[in-house]
Each structure stands twice: as C-alpha cells, then as structure tokens.
Write a structure and sequence with these properties.
This protein has 168 residues and is α+β, with helices and mostly antiparallel strands. It is built from three helices and eight strands; from the N terminus they run αββααββββββ.
C-alpha cells in the first residue's frame, strides 16, 4: 500500500470515529417479574432533550401505534429474557429509550446524549428501569481510549500460624 493510500485510509477512519457510532447496541435484561410478567413495548426514538423532559407517558405511548419520523425502532420486550437490538444512530441529536410498562413506577425512559456510546445495557424491574450502564464514548477527537476497568480487590492475607486445610 502506498504512503498516500495509507494516509487517506487513516484520515477516513479518524473522520468516521469522530462522528460517533453508526449503530447503538442495546442489551435489555428483563427478569421474569418485569411488567407483572406481561410483554411490553420498547420505543427508541430521536428526541430534543428539552421536549423529552416534558413529554407525558401517553404522548410517547401513542407513537407505538402511529410512529412518526423520529421513531428509530419499536420492539416487544418479554419478561424473563435478555434481548439485544441494533439501532441505527441518528446523525445528530439525542436518543430516548422508553419502556411502556403497564403501571410505570419510577424511571421508564433513558436519555442517550451525544457523544453516543456504541453499547448500552439496561436492566428492568417490575415497573421501572432498575439500572443502566453506558460505557463512556470516545472523545470527539478520536484520540482517547476508554477508561480501564478498576483492578479487582486482592483477597486478605491469612494470619500466620493458621492451620492448613486437608488437601491444601
């Protein structure tokens, strides 16, 4: 490969990484008691963060039956499963992931703001989002690396003179 081709390839890779991911991988963990054991809808859509903060549950739920151009994906979430989805990331703007529980009690939506992460893990509970894990996105200059996981704690040393277990 010529030096010029190498530079062009490297430049293209840098530009693509600076734009953010083209796909968002969603992993949804739904224990058996989620939504009182009933299937429910998940709605993924592009949102304006200011409007998102003021939307009523009924407004969001209406988009399942009558999706507009902001809806990126709808899916049925089944209790007792781990489901994975690939969603095309919008070129700009934030993304809302909404879970339409029968009787929501607490957080039922998740806002993903730019810069977008390429993977999101969500754990649900009976009537709300229990937790979400969004790894940090790379800086927009494409130069950074994700933070390393913290080192696991070491087991404490046993006091000297402790009897040894048989077979140890």
């Amino acid at each position: 490969m010529s030096a010029r081709m190498f530079r062009l390839t490297a430049l293209a890779a840098l530009l693509l990484s600076a734009c953010g991911p083209s796909q968002i991988s969603l992993s949804i963990k739904s224990p058996p008691g989620t939504n009182m054991g009933r299937p429910m809808y998940m709605l993924v859509r592009q949102v304006d963060p200011k409007q998102y903060a003021n939307e009523a549950y009924s407004e969001v739920a209406a988009k399942v039956g009558a999706p507009d151009n902001t809806v990126l994906q709808t899916a049925v979430i089944y209790p007792g499963t781990i489901q994975r989805f690939q969603v095309k990331a919008p070129k700009d703007g934030a993304v809302a992931v909404s879970f339409l529980f029968t009787a929501p009690d607490g957080n039922w939506q998740l806002l993903l703001s730019p810069p977008m992460s390429s993977a999101v893990d969500v754990e649900l509970t009976v009537s709300r989002i229990l937790s979400d894990s969004i790894p940090p996105a790379l800086p927009s200059d494409g130069q950074g690396a994700p933070a390393a996981a913290p080192e696991a704690p070491k087991a404490p040393e046993l006091p000297k003179g402790m009897p040894k277990l048989p077979g140890a």
